């Protein structure tokens, strides 16, 4: 091994070590949302509007804004867009997006099924309407989540999931959010060819990310 190659290896090793330290000790300090609190607010909204999905979401979004202030975007029903990822299709609207977290309403009116993806983030999926079924390799019976229940998917874990029929959820992800973007975009190029939806996604995502930067949220 040449001296130049050895030096590059040392530099790369130091960089990886610093990245691991950042991931372990600093990144969690950037989180502002509590999965437990979001679940509590979701349960309250479900009890108040058990038969009206729009009213439920409006009430929940306002409750979250009261709890977390301007870090949460106002819910605007004109800003929903499709999401195709892991062979599943649904629609979503952003409530928060930053380097370390996103908070969205996600779901489908007709049902979907797919792969969760493998991510460097923890995911908290609180069911609001309908139900979600998940299974891991070798799991012979599904785990079923109903309204008010929260499905926790740790980073680097993968599952198959389905949302049979109408199902809507509040989803929080905490971790390296930009590394999730390829999973959400790749089917545009190799499957749907819906570049209009890709543009809409990038437009709303960049605006939300910029707002977080302005507020000092990374």
Structure description:
The strands form two sheets. A six-stranded antiparallel beta sheet has the order 1-2-3-10-5-8. Helices cover 39% and strands 28% of the residues. The protein is an alpha+beta fold. It has two domains: 1-30; 33-215, Jelly Rolls. Helix 2 runs antiparallel to helix 3 (53-68). This is C-8 sterol isomerase. Belongs to the ERG2 family.
Write the layout of secondary structure elements.
Layout (H helix, E strand, L loop, with lengths): L2 H24 L8 H14 L4 H16 L12 E5 L2 E10 L3 E8 L3 E4 L5 E9 L2 E4 L7 E3 L4 E4 L6 E4 L3 E9 L5 H12 L2 H20 L4
Antiparallel strand pairs: 1-2, 2-3, 3-10, 4-9, 5-8, 5-10, 6-7, 6-9
Helix pairs in contact: 2-3
Keywords: Endoplasmic reticulum, Membrane, Transmembrane, Transmembrane helix
Subcellular location: Endoplasmic reticulum membrane
InterPro entries: ERG2_sigma1_rcpt-like
Give short descriptive properties of this protein.
alpha+beta, Jelly Rolls, 2 domains, 6-stranded antiparallel β-sheet, 5 helices, C-8 sterol isomerase, EC 5.-.-.-, ERG2_sigma1_rcpt-like
What is this structure, in a nutshell?
This protein has helices at residues 3-26, 35-48, 53-68, 181-192, 195-214; strands at 81-85, 88-97, 101-108, 112-115, 121-129, 132-135, 143-145, 150-153, 160-163, 167-175.
């Amino acid at each position: 091994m040449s001296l130049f190659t050895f030096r590059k290896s040392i530099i790369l090793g130091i960089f990886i070590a610093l990245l691991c330290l950042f991931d372990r000790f600093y990144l969690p300090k950037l989180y502002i949302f509590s999965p437990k609190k979001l679940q509590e607010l979701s349960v309250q909204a479900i009890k108040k509007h058990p038969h009206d999905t729009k009213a439920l979401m409006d009430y929940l979004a306002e409750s979250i804004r009261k709890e977390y202030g301007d870090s949460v975007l106002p819910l605007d029903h004109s800003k929903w867009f499709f999401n195709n990822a892991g062979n599943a299709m649904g629609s979503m609207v952003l409530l928060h997006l930053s380097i370390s977290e996103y908070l969205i309403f996600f779901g489908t009116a007709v049902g979907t099924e797919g792969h969760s993806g493998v991510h460097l983030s923890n995911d908290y999926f609180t069911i609001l309407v309908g139900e979600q079924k998940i299974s891991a390799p070798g799991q012979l019976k599904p785990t079923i989540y109903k309204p008010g229940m929260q499905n926790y998917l740790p980073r680097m874990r993968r599952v198959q999931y389905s949302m049979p029929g109408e199902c809507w959820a509040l989803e929080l992800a905490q971790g390296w959010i930009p590394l999730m973007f390829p999973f959400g975009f790749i089917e545009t190029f190799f499957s749907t060819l819906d570049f209009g939806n890709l543009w809409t996604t990038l437009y709303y995502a960049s605006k939300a990310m910029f707002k977080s930067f302005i507020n000092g949220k990374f």
